[in-house]
Specification:
The protein is an alpha+beta fold. The protein has 2 domains: 192 residues, no CATH class; 193 residues, no CATH class. It contains 14 helices and 14 strands. It has a 6-stranded mixed barrel with strand order 3-4-9-6-8-7. Helix 2 packs antiparallel against helix 10. The longest helix has 40 residues.
C-alpha cells in the first residue's frame, strides 16, 4: 500500500517532461477547485436565502397553533386557558379569530383575511411588523392594515371622516330577503400599516378580538385558533400531549414547521435541484481528471513496463493512478472549499454582492455544507479515479 501511494505522490507533484501533460493536469486540478468552491458558495447562498425567506413568515407564525379539527371555531373556557399557561414550556398564548371578510372604502372593495387578536399577542411580533402608525386599541373598532390592502383601497391612517366598512355574510338558512340583511357590517378606523411580505401585506389585516367577535357574532369563549409561544427549553411533544389533555382530542396542533409545510417543501425541493445541478458541474470537471490520468498512464508507459518487469502486479500499478486521482480530487476539493468559505465569509462581513442597493445577498455558513461538499467530491473523485485506473491492463504494460 505504501509503495503505490509513494509513486502516486511523485507523479502528482512532480512535473512531467511533456509540457502538455502539465497543462492538462493543471486544468483538471483547477476544474475541481472551482467546481467545489462553486458548490459551497451556492449552498451557502441558498441557505442564506432560505433563512431570509423564512424569517418573514416567522414574524407572525407562533411556535404552536391549536385549531378545531372540525368546523371553523372551538370553545375555550377561562379555566382551560389558565391550565394552558401553567403548562411547563408555555410562555404565552393568544386567542385568535380569523375570517375572510369584504373591505369597502370609498366605493372600492377588497376581500382579505381579518385576524382578531387579544391583548396577549406578542409585543415583539407587533414591533417587528408595524411599519407606520400605531397598534389598534383593543377596546375600539380599529384595525392595522397590510401595506398592500391600504395601497389597493387608497386609505391612510386615522381618517376619521372616512371609516372602512367590513362585511361578512350572516350564517343561516333560507332565502335572502335583501342584500343588506344578508351581511353583518361594522365601521372601523385604520390606525397603522404593517409590512411582513408581499403575500400577507395584500391579504391580511389585524384587529382586536372584541371587534372580530362583534362582526361575526361570536360568543366570549368562541375562537378559531389559539396561538402559543413556547419557552426556549420547551419539549414540544410534552406540550402537545398536555394540550390534548386540556382541550380534548377534537383539535389539530401544528408547529411552526407544519404551518409552513408547503413553503418548506418548495425550498427543500429547490435546494435539492441546485445541489444536483452543481454536482453535475463537478462530474463534468472530473472528466478532466479522468483524461489527465489516462494521458499520464500513456506518458509513463515505459516506467510502468519497468515496474511490471520488476514484479509489481497490475493491481498495484492500478492503485498508483487510483491514489493519484484520489489525491488530486481531495486536495482540489479542500482548496476549493477553503476558497469558497473565504468568499462566503467576505460576503457575510462586507455584503459586496447586493440584491438591492440597500440589501446584500444573504449567505449562511453551515457545517453541513462543508460535509456535503467533501462527501460529494470524495465519492465522485473515487469513482473517477477508479474508472481511469481501470484502463491499465497487462496487455497495455507489455505492448512497448
Amino acid at each position: 500500500m505504501k509503495f503505490p501511494v509513494y509513486i502516486a505522490k511523485r507523479y502528482l507533484f512532480s512535473k512531467s517532461s511533456n509540457n502538455a501533460i502539465n497543462i492538462i493536469s493543471l486544468i483538471a486540478a483547477l476544474g475541481v477547485i472551482v467546481s467545489s468552491a462553486a458548490l459551497f458558495i451556492v449552498l451557502s447562498g441558498f441557505a442564506g436565502l432560505k433563512d431570509f425567506t423564512l424569517q418573514f413568515s416567522s414574524f407572525v407564525d407562533p411556535d404552536m397553533k391549536v385549531m378545531p379539527s372540525d368546523g371553523k371555531t372551538m370553545l375555550v373556557t377561562n379555566d382551560q386557558l389558565e391550565q394552558i399557561i401553567s403548562i411547563n414550556g408555555v410562555a404565552s398564548y393568544s386567542n385568535i379569530i380569523e375570517e375572510r371578510v369584504v373591505f369597502n372604502f370609498d366605493n372600492k372593495s377588497e376581500i382579505a383575511t381579518l385576524k382578531g387578536v387579544d391583548e396577549n399577542y406578542p409585543q415583539a411580533t407587533i414591533d417587528s411588523i408595524l411599519y407606520q402608525g400605531k397598534w389598534f386599541d383593543p377596546e375600539a373598532n380599529q384595525l392595522v392594515s397590510g401595506w398592500g390592502i391600504a395601497n389597493n383601497l387608497a386609505f391612510g391612517i386615522f381618517q376619521f371622516d372616512k371609516p372602512i366598512q367590513l362585511y361578512v355574510p350572516k350564517p343561516g338558512k333560507g332565502q335572502i330577503s335583501s342584500i343588506k340583511g344578508a351581511y353583518n357590517t361594522i365601521n372601523v378606523l385604520n390606525t397603522g400599516v404593517f409590512q411582513i411580505n408581499e403575500e400577507l401585506d395584500y391579504s391580511m389585516v389585524f384587529t382586536g378580538l372584541k371587534t372580530a367577535r362583534a362582526l361575526l357574532n361570536y360568543s366570549e369563549q368562541q375562537i378559531t385558533a389559539l396561538e402559543i409561544q413556547l419557552k426556549a427549553d420547551a419539549i414540544q411533544e410534552e406540550v402537545v400531549s398536555q394540550l390534548h389533555t386540556i382541550l380534548g382530542k377534537d383539535i389539530v396542533i401544528k408547529n411552526r414547521f407544519q404551518l409552513n409545510d408547503a413553503l418548506y417543501k418548495m425550498l427543500n425541493a429547490e435546494h435539492l435541484a441546485v445541489y444536483l445541478i452543481f454536482t453535475l458541474v463537478i462530474i463534468i470537471a472530473l472528466f478532466n481528471v479522468i483524461g489527465s490520468i489516462i494521458i499520464m498512464i500513456l506518458d509513463k508507459k515505459k516506467n510502468l513496463n519497468t515496474l511490471f518487469s520488476l514484479g509489481i502486479t497490475v493491481k498495484e500499478i492500478r492503485r498508483i493512478f487510483f491514489f493519484q486521482g484520489t489525491l488530486m480530487t481531495l486536495l482540489g476539493g479542500l482548496i476549493g472549499l477553503a476558497l469558497g468559505f473565504i468568499l462566503v465569509l467576505l460576503q457575510k462581513l462586507f455584503g459586496w454582492v447586493p440584491i438591492t442597493p440597500s440589501l446584500p445577498y444573504p449567505v449562511t455558513i453551515k457545517p453541513l455544507n462543508f460535509i456535503i461538499v467533501l462527501l460529494t467530491i470524495s465519492i465522485l473523485g473515487l469513482l473517477a479515479s477508479k474508472i481511469a485506473s481501470a484502463r491499465i491492463s497487462k496487455q497495455l504494460l507489455t505492448s512497448i
